[in-house]
Amino acid sequence: MKLGIPHGEAEAFACPVTFTVDVIGGKWKALILFHLMSETRRFNQLRRLMPEITQRMLTLQLRELEADDIIHREVYREVPPKVEYSLAPLGETLVPLITAMRDWGAAHEEVEGSAR
Length: 116
Prior knowledge:
- The protein is α+β, with helices and mostly antiparallel strands.
- Strands 1-3-2 form a three-stranded antiparallel β-sheet.
- Strand 2 and strand 3 form a beta hairpin.
- The longest helix has 21 residues.
- The protein is globular.
């Protein structure tokens, strides 16, 4: 037993956390969502905001988020083709979570910085 929660109950509580991490976990998805919180963005805008991500990885992460209905991909039929990404309604429900992650990171960064 950990934290006073019986083993079976701890597993039941962990299941939704596992699902959430499966959907938005990894190095890039939360950052992509953070950048889409403020406005709709094009692929190259996201690349410029995250210079460390490869084109292939950004494409893969965007496809996974789209497949999970977290983001919306809008293709405009023009030459050259124009594609924009925005948060889908389900993605909008993640805004408080991403904001909390940002706030926690800022607070933790301050604590780490003062400890050095």
